[in-house]
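Entry for the shared binder. Reason: the reviewer on the internal report wants the predicted structure included alongside the sequence.
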Amino acid sequence: MPRTPKAAAQAPSTMKELKDTLWKAADKLRGSMDASQYKDVILGLVFLKYVSDAFDERRAGIRAELTAEGYDDEQIAELIDDTDEYTGRGVFWVPANARWGFLAENAKGLGPSMDTHEKSIGALIDEAMDAVMQANPQLSGTLPRIFNRDSVDQRRLGELVDLFNSARFAAQGQGGSDGRRARDLLGEVYEYFLEKFAAAEGKRGGEFYTPAGVVRVLVELLQPTHGRVYDPACGSGGMFVQAEKFIDAHHGEGSDISVYGQELNERTWRMAKMNLAIHGLSGNLGPRWGDTFARDLHPDLQADFVMANPPFNIKDWARNEDDPRWRFGVPPAGNANYAWIQHILSKLAPGGQAGVVMANGSMSSNSGGEGQIRAEIVEADLVSCMVALPTQLFRSTGIPVCVWFFAKDKGARAGEVLFIDARNLGHLVDRAERALSDEDIARIAGTFHAWRGIESGAAPAEYANVPGFCYSAALAEIKAADYALTPGRYVGAAETADDGEPIEEKLARLRAELEAQFAESARLAGVVRAQIARVS
């Protein structure tokens, strides 16, 4: 879809009010259905509200343009339904029976037109979803049609539509008529809802959502501003969305990248399709969902950038020992980690780069031949950087994670690997979750860019090893460590400040303190024995 410059962002207070209103509205249906269906209903309804508001906004803009050019009402009525005037500006065409105003009028099942009084609001929304998909082929098979099921409380659904009426995604009073500002707002709301649903679903939420901070580490290091971007386990499309945001922040165009992805879960695949549509990205996620190992939907793809957070430590996966992707060795049957890594390496174009989130065990495991596979990959000089991340970044798992970065061409850094130990970065959002700050991400990315010699606003003037944080190791050093890639093994301990106390005096002082503590311990033990003897 064509791209246009961003309009001014909405004030944070207004954005918070919008999110709060929508989440309150979403709670109307909580409890009447299972979590996964509830998620589909809410996200589908939010998407429909967005496309309708953006359509109405563009329609008003067309009317104003034609009026200014001197067209009369009859001419305007004829020209205002030209679909090219909408799709050419990146706005979906919304048929009359799918527009929010029509649905709002019939939210209680009492419509004045089109004989809708006999239809439930759920049936009308299902028909609206069909109409939008038929009018916009890129959305075919994407939108949910589950609103008229017995498990959906029609009264509460009608109330939800009423509440959504108070929230507009269109750029009221901002002079925009291309739907872009509506897209920006809805995109933020959609991501907010994905995060909320992922937190609510716990471990299952990790199947479709990667924390934004983790995704940003990959995006900021790789800087995917052009070419083909691929994710073989794309979830709800967060990698692609963050890539688009990075391009916007650096004054690029979303059309500079071509998006390719694959997702195993049907519902998650649909969420990703909606997420890309909201952010104006025309992505190729295959004609349907599918298992990347059993059937690669992009067999001939050579990607410039691969970014992925595949599921960790899968024991039951579609393993074929004769698969040509296993260039460095056949992955073990009981763990797919090195299957994901080798699949991703097979997708890299000459000069391509990749970032892959993995469980920490992947950096040093020797079971099932994984150590030998890792050695072959290191000796092929494909590993550019290893980053150990802090714990608790994922609500869905307590497994410590790392990021592998690969490069087909490491330039002046050929024969070296950069190790970054970022385990001490981040801050606790609550007792269960840690987050990376902008400064944390900038430090990690800046260190990598300085090492590679890439210009970056966050990069120091030149790279230098920092004890306890980063170290550039030659392949010979890694071989001597039996090809273990754990950053802590290489970066060493952080330097401690010299307090100026001579070592002999410090040892004498500490010895005296220890002897005093031993004496106090003995005294307290005597007191306790005396008390026990008194009561026995």
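Summary line for the report: The longest strand covers residues 348-359.
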